Amino acid sequence: MFEFIKKKIEKIKSKRSLHEYGFEINTFTLASEGKIDYAQWLHPYESKKEITEEMVQFYASFAPKGSMIIDIGAHTGDTAVPMAIAVGKTGSVLALEPNPYVFKILVENASLNADKTNIIPLNFAATDEDGSFEFNYSDASFCNGGFLQKIENKNHEHKYTLQVQGKNFQHYLEKHYKDQLASLSLVKVDAEGYDKNILRSIRPILAQYQPHIISECNQNLTPGERAELFDLINGLGYDIFKLDGFEDAKAKTLISRASQMNQWRHFDLVAIAKK
Known about the structure:
The protein is of the alpha/beta class and 275 residues long. It has eight helices and 14 strands.
C-alpha cells in the first residue's frame, strides 16, 4: 500500500512540475545472447520495459546481421536495444530522440552491452529543416509527447511544451552516413502522428534503398491523414500490413487500400518493398 501511495504522489508531482528521474539497471537473459542489461527510466509514467528473445527475432526477420537500422523516436532505447542485438556488433542502430530528459537514458542504454551492440544515440528530431521546435508532452516532466503541432487534431491533451532541436534528416544521413546507406534494412518511426512527415522528408532514401518500414498509425490521426500515410508509403512501392502481433513478423494483415487505415483506432504497420 505504501509503494502504491508513493507512486501516486510521484505521478502527481511529475504531472504538474518538472522533475528529473534516474534509472535502474535490469538484466534479461536471452537464449541467443545470454545476459542483456537495460536501463529502466524511473519516471512514474514510464511503463516497465522488457527485452525478450521474441523482440530480437522480430527485428532480425527484417534486418540481417551487419546491416543498419534507423530508430526514429527511440525514447529510452526499448526498441533500439533489441534492434542492435539483431544486427549485431558489426551492424548499427541510429537512434533518434529529441527529448533531452529521455535522451540521457537512451545514452545509458547505448553504452550497455557494448560487446554485442552498436547503438548511436542522436539528440535531435527528424524535421524538414534544421532549427528549434516546440514539442508537446502529456506531463511537466516530459515522458510522452511529440511534434503534435503538425497533426490536425488539437485535442490531444498534451499541454506541456518543450523546445527541442531538429535536423533535416535526409541531409544529415547523406553527409554522415552516405557510404553505409546501402546496408539500410529497416526504418522504424514512432512519432505520435508525425510519422508521415518524417517519412516524406527522407523519401529519396526510402525510394533508393527500399528498407523495410515500421510506423505507427496514431489514434489522433484524421481519416485524411491516415490516407496520406498510406498513399505515401504505397506510392514508394511498398505493400503495407497491419502488425497483428508486434513480436511476430508473420502475424500481419494486408492493407490494400487507404480506407482500411480507418478500421483500427491505433496500430503499428510494416511496409515491405514490392518485388
